[in-house]
Structures are given as C-alpha cells and as structure tokens.
Amino acid sequence: MPSSGLRCAAGLLSLAQDRDTKGQKVATAMTAEGADASAMRPYDIFISYSRVDADQAMKLRDLLLARGHHVFFDAEGIDAGAEFPDVIDRAVKGAKVVLGCWTPAAIQRRWVRIESRIGLDRGSLVAIALEKMDPEALPAEFYNVNVLDMSGFDGSEAHPAWQRVLVAIDRRLKKTTAAPTADDIRPAGPKKRRFSPLALGAAATLAIAAVGGGGWYFANGAPAFDQAATAASFDKTVKATEPVMANALVSALNDVETSTNGKVFWALAQLIAVEKSPSAEELARFEAAVTKFLGGACHCVMVEGAPFTIVSTWTLTAYGVMDRAPPAPVVDALLAAQNREGWWSSTMDAADRPDNAATYITALAVIALRDIDPALKADPALQAKAKAARARAVEWLKKRRPKPGVNWADYPDNSLRTEAPSVSAMATLALLPEVGEAEAKEIAETYVAGIDKLSPVDQNISNDVNVIRAGGDTYVDTYRHVPLGWEVYALGKSYPLLTGEAATKAAGLLDQAKAISLSDPKLARQDWMLAEQFLGLRGARDALSAKKR
Prior knowledge:
44% helix; alpha/beta; Rossmann fold; 2 domains
C-alpha cells in the first residue's frame, strides 16, 4: 500500500522514511518541533490527484506550502485495487479543504472520486481542472460542482487562475473559524437521535388536544398544526412545480433517444414515475427507450460498468404508477438479483455476503414490486413470484428495524454502515402498507423518533460503500440520496398513525415543510433532485388529504 507524506522546501517539514507495519506502508510527517508533530493537528489542505498528474500537483503543493499552509500530499498515490489507507482516510476527513485536481481521466479514477466526494459531502471541496473539461461529462454526483479552470496555469503564484483558486481555498479555511451555516456544509454523518420528552420545558406550557378538522392546538387556542392547511400548502407547491416536471420529462425523452448512457435513461424512468400520467406519445417513446436500454441479455441498465439495481426499481415504479404491465424479463431480472435472505444490493450481480445488503435498495424494490402488483394480474405466475420476493424483503427489513431513537442503517452489516433519517424514511414507506395497524404505528414512531430536523432542499449524500460483485470485482455505491423529499413523504404517511408526543413532533416537522420551495435556485438543472423532492411533497400531500386526524 503506498506511502503518504509531504516535504517543505523551507525545511520546516520533511518526509520520514516509509516504514512497513503489518505489510502496509505508512508515512510520517515531521516538523522542526519533532517527529509526527504535524499529525497532531488537522491539515489545512488535502491534495487529491491522479498519479499521472503528480508533477502538476506537486507544483501546487509547493505554492501552498510557501504560503504557510499545513498540506497533506500523498507522494505515491494509491494503487488500483488497494484498500483506502487509514492515514489518508483520517487526513481527507479532517482537512479543512480538499483540493481536487481533476482531468477527464483523473475524475474517473476511483480514489480521486472517493476523496472528492468526501470533500463535497463535508463542504470542503475545491475542484480545479488541470485540463479543459466538459461540465456535462462530469459524473452525476459532481454535476453541480463549480470547477475552476486551471488548464492555462503557467506555474506562477500571480497567475489569475491560481489566484481564483486561492480565493476559494481561503473562503473554505475561513469557514472553519466560524459556525457554519446549512448552506456551507454537508454533514459528515448523521447524528444518532436523542429522543428527549417534550416535558423538557415545552410541555410545561403546551397542553395539546386533538380537535375536529385535523388540527393540533395549544392550550390558549392558537393553532400549532393544521393538517388540512398543510396538505393544501403542499398541493400549492406541487401544482406550481408540475409544469417544470413536464418540461423535464420532454427533455429527458429527447436526450434518451440520442444517448446510450444508462444514467440518461435512469433520469427518464424517474421522471416517468413522478409524472404518473404521460401522454400516449410520451408513453410510446418511454417504452421504446425501455427496449433500447433494458432489452439486452441482462434486462438491466449498466451504470459505470455494473448492472445498477436502482434503475430497474425506478423503471418498474414508472410502470406501476401508470398501472401498466412492465416487460416480464425486466421483472424477472430484478427478482433473480434478490439475495436468498431477502435483500438487494446496489448491483444486481452482488456477491452472496451480508455486507452487500442495502436497506435503501431493498426498500425501493419493495415499493416498486407493490406498485406493479395490480398490473401483473394478467400473468398470475409472475405476480405470485413478485409477491413472494416482496414478502422476503419485508421480513428482512423488519428484522433490521432499529430501537426507538436510532435511525435505520443502510448496509447494516457493513463496517461502513450509515444511519440516517433518509434511509429510515425509505424503509418506513416500504413497510407501512405491508404490516398491520399496530406494527405500522410502531414503525412510524421509530421513524419520527429518529429525525430531529429536515434536511436542506439541495442536500444529497452518498455512502460510498464498496460492494463486492459475484466475480470478485469491487463496485463503489455512489448513489446520491436526496433526503428531504423522502423525509417529508414518510412524515406525511406516519402522522395519521401517531398520537401524543410522536404526533406533536411529526406535526412540527410537517409544519416546517410548508416553507419548502421547489423553485429554489439550488435545484436549477438538478432534475433528478427535483423529481424526488416533488415526489415526496406530493406523497405527503396525498397522505394528509386521505385521512384527517
């Protein structure tokens, strides 16, 4: 495994000799104050680069060191197939700035992408292009990243492009000295829920009573939550966004007819699922795209070289919401990808090992199979197979239900498991229609206990879990979760089942959701994010409108 270190021309930093510890090379940073002194504090800047760009990256390192920055620079890079060294893992996660040195080739390198994603999720990424890059060719997870053009950089400190980079770096460094805002950072990881009783002071002044018309009220009569008004507010937002979604669908249909990129079809399937009622012409064009992208031997869509399960779930959901039977081979392919224990993973050819089990994919598969169930009535045998697969998945999810106050874990048997309200929301939406009323109430209470606040409208996060494929290859699950829509949707579905403290908490979060605007500029050109937020608000609207408390 390659070593990591840095060298300062002024002599303040030198790189100690690599030492081999249990077969791994480890680099030690030293300062004039003594060995490893520099490792005692976080790095200002972590430089992420591909080995072929080392010469250019070293020039940037030297310029940054000359400015007095504490810089982490991996001197040899990481070999293909190697594990992520602990020293690099700590450095990139602790750095105030991750300087991503991108080229069209570098951004396709596994470790450059992982390091850059860590920076993106933590709000510390400064991305630069060492060569000319087409923004449209960026991987989906970096589609909205502002990449600073350094293709004409001549190595001088005064170069205008380098000065722009320094401004961006300084902005990130200054943010670490002040309390960051929601727009400045993405969470490093979800906090475990502390489900404190409302009696912590608020309940001393709050006497809640349910009254006719679907509202919750303070003792003094001032309304705290009005279910009908909240549903109406969501409806207003949904209707205002419908023309935008319709235009996005038209664009996606045009794109998919001239592209062979699986991600382009993925976006189309998602938009059809959200649109619900495409025109006859749009439906015909969608089915032509299904034949084009899923008509091959695997009856699946390849994304970054792997058969990506989530595209199949969105495709089936699209058919389900239209009450139209999907192609039987596509259904069979998804059923064949299910593990015997009931779970699915991000790739349809995942190896049979527990750490590949993904909660979010399994939940989405349950939803998709439930959606298509009525449309499969003309094929009783396939319908029965789909129901059996759904039942196995439901049982697997139920066994993974967390204790109250703890969120559901994605990849629950993996060392990189992530507990998050968005995963809890997906699992909750998958399970509520599948269980009896008493169990549904418990599941709803568990979900509400684990969510303290709503995610920002433009937030998206990924787990970056390594999935081992049946052939032994490793696939990094880079699926970008869009939490807010799922969180609100699950709150809307849960609220009618709740009473007491849990209902009050859910009501407060739903009341906050009325302020959500899907015309937020941060969602511009982000149709994939907008679609999931739209789906969530519409689902919450329908749930709150269906039954008054």
